[in-house]
Task: structure prediction
Amino acid sequence: MKKIATLILAGMLGAAAQASGRASAQVAAQPPAQHHKAVTPKTAASPKAGTPASAGAARSYDRALLRPAGLNEKAPDTYQVKFATTRGDFTVTVTRAWSPFGADRFYNLVKHHFYDHASFFRVLPGFVAQFGISSYPPVSAAWIKANIKDDAVTQSNKKGYLSFATGGPNTRTTQVFINLADNARLDASGFSPFGRVTEGMNVVDMFYEGYGEGAPSGGGPDQDKIQNQGKPYLDKGWPKLDYIRTTTLIAASSTGPATPAPAKKPAPAAAKKPQ
Result:
């Protein structure tokens, strides 16, 4: 009887493991989403004496980030952003024509250092690396309802391409994901790539992925709590997450309709001398 019971238990555990594996695969396939739960603003704490600069986020942010409506500058036709992260550096090239609203939003966020100290809080191997919740609750609170309109999908979500996460139609705010594989199935759901990693994709591929999917379906951090508590919440519960140290606009260009050069006037003919 003991032997039979043991076999039954082993079978049950095996079935459970298979079911768990299927559930994990289904979770990993979920499109990148952002939550819109209200955030209670908190003042960023002052650094403790002796705290190393590399520990946690810097304790200040651009106060212009508290007024999203004012950050509406039109982006250049193309621009590049250098990300310095805890894993290394990578560069993103943005093409405005691909996704104009998305490219403009990303440009303004980068210009005012919104993404500095933000963690890659959802890294799913073979799928996406997601980031874009501010380290500072007051900033998160300001951007909760700062939605932009959807863009047409003109590029596919190929490996290395960046798109904004959404909470439904016309709800893009600040969260972005980098495709870690060719995710063409996301195209039909309206995820519109606005740029791609042009240098350092090997760095992106190395972001820490051990925590898996976010709460409540996985062991990773909860988006709502990141928004409410900021980076200290991540540092305490998920200390191995990679994060962005700084972002820098390193190149930008705009090209308008070519202006024709003024026609050159013909040189005056030399006066003929009388014979």
User: Anything to note?
Assistant: Residues 1-28, 39-58, 256-275 have pLDDT under 50 and may be disordered. Residues 2-28 form the longest helix (27 residues). Residues 1-30 form one domain.
